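Table S2 (text version). Query chain:
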Amino acid sequence: MTITTKHLLLVLQVLSWIIFIGVSIEAGGFLFNTIYTFFIPEMEARFYWSHIDLSALFRFDRGYFLVITGLMSIVAVLKATLFYTILKMLHEQKLDLQQPFTPKIGKLIFGMSYLALGIGLFAHWGERYTTWLIGRGIQMPELHHLRLAGADVWLFMGVVLFVIALIFKRGIELQTDSELTV
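Corresponding structure-token output:
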């Protein structure tokens, strides 16, 4: 049995659905728990999403709490949006293996590169902000618990996707020129 490109794309589509559902639940959990903690303050953020204890930060300053949970939420929402874009490309059959260089695919890859760069920038901002809060003596969970670790990887991925998008753009131009001359 040989594994074809269509089989691989189907496996990637299933994996993308699983990841999309996971990051969507995480984003919803972050947003809901932030709002819930503000309206029911006696919880003091002790039992935040995924058992993250942000009670020390909440007691120290609610504004700082809102900033860090906002950054966590933004990163999670951007991740969900990125995987939605991947699903959109795979599910709606916009990826034609006979002619992959289409303007729609080029736009989607540019969009994915911007999303990855955004994830990297907001995660880096959250990382720096958390380091600053720790420097002020506030007890904070580790970055991977806050889902803010790996900013450098996301920035690298965004740059790579941007380069691929530029290559796709050039491929679209060459394909269009080739079709016009024939």
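Notes on Table S2: The chain has one domain: 5-181. The radius of gyration is 20 Å.
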